[in-house]
Amino acid sequence: MFFTKTAIGGHHIKSGIVCQDYSASYHDAERTIVTSCDGHGGAVYLRSDRGAKFASYAAINVLRNVNRRTFYRRRTEDVANQLRVQLLCEWNALVERDLAARPLRKGEVKHLSDEQLFSLRMEPVKAYGTTVAAAMLYGSKLVILSLGDGGCFLFRRGRMIPAFEEEDDEQVANLTNSLCQSDAAEHMHVGIFDADRFDGALLCTDGVINPYQTLDNFERSLAIPAAGKVIEHRERKLSDFIVRLGGEIGVGDDVTLSILLKDDVNRRTYSKEV
Amino acid sequence: MKFSKNDTISFEGRTLTVLDLLGEGGQGEVYLVSDGADRYALKVYKYEVHPDFRYNLKNNIEKGSPSPSFLWPKRLIDFEDGRIGYLMDLRPKNYVSFVSYLTGKSAFRDLSTKLHWCIELCLAFKRLHEMGYSYQDLNDGSFFLDPDTGDLLICDNDNVTADKKNLGILGKMRYMAPEIVRGDKLPGGGVQMPDVHSDRFSLAIILFLALCLGNPFEGERLKNYDIVDETSEYEMFGKDPVFVYHKEDKSNRPIRGYHTSLIKYWPMIPLYVKEAFHRSFVDGLTDRENERTTELEWIRLLSRYRDETIRCDGCGKEYILGLGEKKRNDVCPFCRKKTKGCCVLRVGRNVVALDLGKEIMATHLDKYSSAYNEPVGIVLANPNRPTLWGLRFSGQGEIEIKDEAGTVRVVPEGKPVPIVRNLKIKFKNNVIGEIK
Amino acid sequence: MEDKVLGDGIVKQELNLLFVIDNSGSMDGEKLGAVNNAIRDVMAIMPEIQEDTGDVNIKISALTFSDDVKWVYPEPKSVSEFRWKDVSADGGTDFSRAYDEMSKYLCKRSKGGQMPELGGVAPIIILMTDGMPTSYDWENHLISLKKKGWFRVALKYALAIGIDTDEAMDVLKKFTGNPETVLKVYTAEALRKVIKVIAVTASKVKSSSTHTGADGAVNNNDLAQAEIADRLENVADVEW
User: Fold this and answer.
1) Chain A partners of B223 at a C-beta cutoff of 8 Å?
2) Which of B150, B204, C49, C150 could covalently link to B117 via disulfide, CB atoms 3.0 to 4.6 Å apart?
């Protein structure tokens, strides 16, 4: 079972800015992949909506190529590092292809300061700055990769657990790690979990998580009820809520929620209704 | 049998006391020992070694160290149980490993210091090769550096043999020349073993690592493997290596976001050094005897690099003036502050940027000298008027100078030569320099 | 019935306003009197500002430092709870301890600080001092403080009260990282007005004009800074 929904934020609607979040999913007989990416705001990141889209594509392309051999007799850290390399190569290539097809136009950069223009000329890839988060259920593995301030959580027996230890108070307010930074790989988390031990995963952008102030509150008020909705196949309700969270009741930022659950998850643990 | 603390070892009528175990590896143990007066490191091999190995080691000890940069074996010891060992000097505390530099745990004081180390490295291998040796196993683990002075120490010298002779060592993956990785068949039978030419290839890799903090053959091709293992390493470093900055074949460029340091540092090294790397890592892949940049070539190029570095007044970092580039550096590449006006000393083919603290080496004034790292002059500020700079030479005797107006003056030994534009300087042996 | 679950638990974003006040011996008398007055003035207006904004909770904290550091309240207080207590002066000017205390404050609550676990608006920090640090290693402590994400995104002002040496001004410029947010103030009246303008304008702009996330905090700071600059034009005895 999986769910993805991205909705534009109220602030973006008011200011006439496009939605810079992007999510995607992939599903076949063997695997299910969901993504959740948040293109940066700010003048320099003028194509971050495309950056977020490419991040989703890149993550799916890389995770689709993972096969049983990948994990066979391999050190987890070696596999993780290869996924970092592949994700960066894939995203870089998509961005470069886009830049070649549609070079930055005068009109796009006219409101930038000289300093911003210079930094963009040195590193055009900055225009596409984005976070990335992706989760894949494949055989006995649950793979999660993430760079930036998006939320990544695991579900286990009706509870929500952070997938990664947090870096020390680094990513607050509008500070986040990004696929466009020169040392992106160093900050990219890759988790390869034993799928038997978990029920699934939840990914979201900071627009979803910020209105809840504490993780306990987020778990209780959003994560668990949302998983319940997916299990009950009432995704429509959840979708509608995400739209409202972005446009009306949240912090005004774009919102993305992606959920991945094993098909045999115990309904009762997440849903109050059964 | 391993030694314990306070064990004693007698040889040649001396008694050595074991003070501590310094390290342990696959080959054997290294102990801290004392003969009462001095302390040494004692390496003891775990197993009985091949007689050829012992003979070679003994021979090397007798021939002596190529240069002070080598922590060379000093005395061979035969133990009663048939094992052997050797004594060497201790590594002084001010040295840190090259590996700790590569992993960011320690850093050279500045670029000039780093270049000093690189030149020392080339000088050491030049001497080693001149003595008819080859090192055979150049890798990141053998080198040490003093971060403040750039002085060099080379350890693990027990595999050094006369060139074209081999004791079975092949080297370490990622540092080996491709023909050694592949085990190329030789026309007269046998396979290609390490020699001077494979040493040169590995030396270029070490220099590339020192200057750019990345491996010259590890780029985008990494993505093609779902894991880096022997197979992929054989392909990347043996079967089909592609230099990451190959001019035509762009299939293995460094990965943005992953090869962070390499992408940052490569653009800052001078064009003539880049060309030398390209030659070694592209043409040198096939023509192992003629296209691998030699030690002397490296020494000249790296000296030229050091000569044209200046220090930014804004951020304190060093960068090149860009005398050999398509366009000079008109701003600091780190903080973008405008490049300061800086005089240069032209003497022979050398152009030295006369920034504060810059050293003039013996080789600058004497083209027959090979003392590339031996300073004979330095740029100093006048203690009373810090904006006035001068060049103080030593061991050059009286120096005759002629200013723009044609006034000739003699500067006695030890007194500074003022740094003013268009000043002509006559050194001994009629060597003429000019400040521009 | 189940749908009332989704939508529950959404909390207002927090905006922290932090006053950092030098109460070393040299601040005694007129200077500290003006600070006490000014903060009282600010507190009189804050309820209106809080009322005007729906989605942000303003929280106020005050730290005094001399030889020692002391919080007026152990944790940030809402506008309605915060009561100013006059501070008095004594001792040296230990910037190192003040910076360390700010570093602690700017951590998440789960790590012993006062910042929210999730979300939150970039804080406003107003530092007031009349002198040079008496601790020699303040710069190292500032370097640690600058590692805190919440410090980097904060809108930082420093008020130099009767300071005239470049050296002391440099200390403050290093704190804000921006010469435009270091103000020299020469009279008690000017000090009172400046504190009020900064605290009130920044709170207002940051709590109402934009939201957190994406492009929130930084542009938000710029906007607040521009508006503060506008309003300070008419205040006498202030120098930029």
Assistant:
1) 85-86, 89-90
2) B150
Pick among B258, B259, B260, B336 to test the A interface (most A CBs inside 10 A): B258
Does residue B288 register a pLDDT over 90? yes
Identify the residue with better confidence: B352 or B48. Answer: B352
Three-state DSSP at B265 gives helix
CB contact under 8 A, B226 and A78: no
Q: What is the CATH number of the domain that holds B29?
A: 3.30.200.20
Q: Which two tokens stand for residue B379?
A: 């740029």
pLDDT of residue B73: 94
Residue located via tokens 């805190």: C148
Do the chains contact at C10 and A42, CB–CB below 8 Å? Answer: no
* Fold that domain A2-270 belongs to in CATH: Phosphatase 2c; domain 1 (3.60.40)
What's chain A look like in SS3? CEEEEEECCHHHHHHCCCCCEECCEEECCCEEEEECEEECCCCCCCCHHHHHHHHHHHHHHHHHCCCHHHHCCCCHHHHHHHHHHHHHHHHHHHHHHHHHHCCCCHHHHCCCCHHHHHHHHHCHHHHHCECEEEEEEECCEEEEEEECCCEEEEEECCEEEECCCCCCCCCCCCCCCCCCCCCHHHHCEEEEEEHHHCCEEEEECHHHHHHHCCHHHHHHHHHHHHHHHHHCCCHHHHHHHHHHHHHHHCCCCCEEEEEEECCCCCHHHHCCCC
The full set of domain ranges for chain C reads: 12-239
Same domain, B158 and B289: yes
Cβ contacts of A84 on chain B, cutoff 8 Å: 258
Contact residues, chain C, for A19 at CB < 8 Å: none
Domain range spanning residue B425?
A: 342-436
Asked whether C and B share 3 or more beta-carbon pairs under 8 angstroms, the answer is: no
pLDDT tens sequence across C84-143: 888 888 888 999 999 999 999 999 888 889 999 888 888 999 999 988 888 889 999 999
Instruction: Give B395 to chain A, closest Cα distance, Å.
Output: 48
Q: Which residues pair with B379 in a beta bridge?
A: B391
Q: Is residue B174 included in any domain, yes or no?
A: yes
B3 within some domain: no
pLDDT score, position C240: 63
Chain mean pLDDT for chain B: 92
What residues have CB less than 8 Å from B190, skipping those under 6 apart? none
- The answer to whether the Cβ–Cβ distance between A125 and B260 falls below 8 Å is no
Q: What's the pLDDT at B4?
A: 87
pLDDT at residue A127, as a whole number: 96
What's the rounded mean pLDDT across residues A46-68?
96
User: How much is the ipTM here?
Assistant: 0.89
| Cα gap C193→C197, rounded to integer Å | 6
pLDDT at C214 over 60: no
pLDDT at residue A273, rounded to an integer: 52
Task: Give the per-residue pLDDT at C4.
Answer: 54
End position of a domain, from candidates B60, B88, B116:
B88
- CATH superfamily for C12-239 is von Willebrand factor, type A domain (3.40.50.410)
Q: What is the dihedral of CA B9, B14, B17, B21, to 10 degrees?
A: -70
Please tell me which residue of chain A has the smallest CA distance to C113.
A169
Q: How many domains does chain B have?
A: 3
Please give the mean pLDDT across all residues of chain C. 85
Record: contact A169-C148, CB cut-off 8 A: yes
As a three-state string, the secondary structure of B337-368 is: CECCCCCEEEECCEEEECCCCCEEEHHHHCCC
CB-based contacts of C99, cutoff 8 Å, min separation 6: C138, C141, C142, C144, C145
A174 CB neighbours in chain C (<8 A) are 122, 153, 212-218
Contacting partners of chain B (3+ CB pairs under 8 A): A
Name the residue among C173, C174, C232, C236 with its Cα closest to residue C198: C232
